[in-house]
Amino acid sequence: MRRLALVLSFGLSMAGGAPALAETAETAPAAAETPIVIGRSYALPSSVMGQTREINVWLPPGYAQSGRTYPVLYLLDGGRDQDFHHISGIAQLGTIVGTTRDVIVVGIASVDRRNELALPTDNPELIARYPTHGRSERFRRFVAEEVQPFIEGRFRTNGESALMGESLAGLFVVETFLKEPQMFDAYVAVSPSLWWDGGVLARQSGAHLRDHSNDPRTLILTLGDEGEEMQAPMDVLTANLRDHALPGVKWDFTPRPSESHASIYHGAALDAFRRLYAAPAQ
Asked: What's the 3-state SS for 75-94?
């Protein structure tokens, strides 16, 4: 009985305190709410693609007041629900702590990745699985003829540009470097899907490299512990780079055996920023 009395007493005291708690919540001042603005998104009409496409732009802090010009990093899979926030966050961090130069990040959203980022193939299995595949050349024209002019006409750019992508987007980066090297000054391909179509792009890379001019270019390649299907064509590509890349091309391949396809992007992108946009020594 004594225990029951204690429980009843505690319950009554708690019930008696409830109105006071409610009054505190009701009378507390409302928390001010302000949207967090990370960048700007543009709906860019595209005659090349035949539809309006999402382009996202992150500008360095102080851009509006500086009057300066900036390098541009073009990011594939750069939609708001893709890699735009990830990579623009790396740019923001470098700016805040002073480890990298300020750079404009332009995210180019993907819609149908096999259509936009992959080469055409005659492989019946790939055709059956991805019937819309193989329009990377069209997507490259979209970037060159519509995205780059839009950015250069609207923002203060300094003529220095780079292209970054991972997985299928990394395949597109390598293809662009091999076939249209003049489009960008630097290329970053993280875990590129060189396995596509049996590694044909890697096998053809020597012929493409022999057609290059000696203009300065940078190619950054990296791959995790991702199996023979990914490693074998990378080995073919790097062998052709060793044999055929002209002196103007600065390239390197960094294995990341502690990383998987799912985990490699952040560290690889951070390292690429530190290389391409290293802050001047004080």
From this structure: EECCCCCCCHHHHHHHHHHH
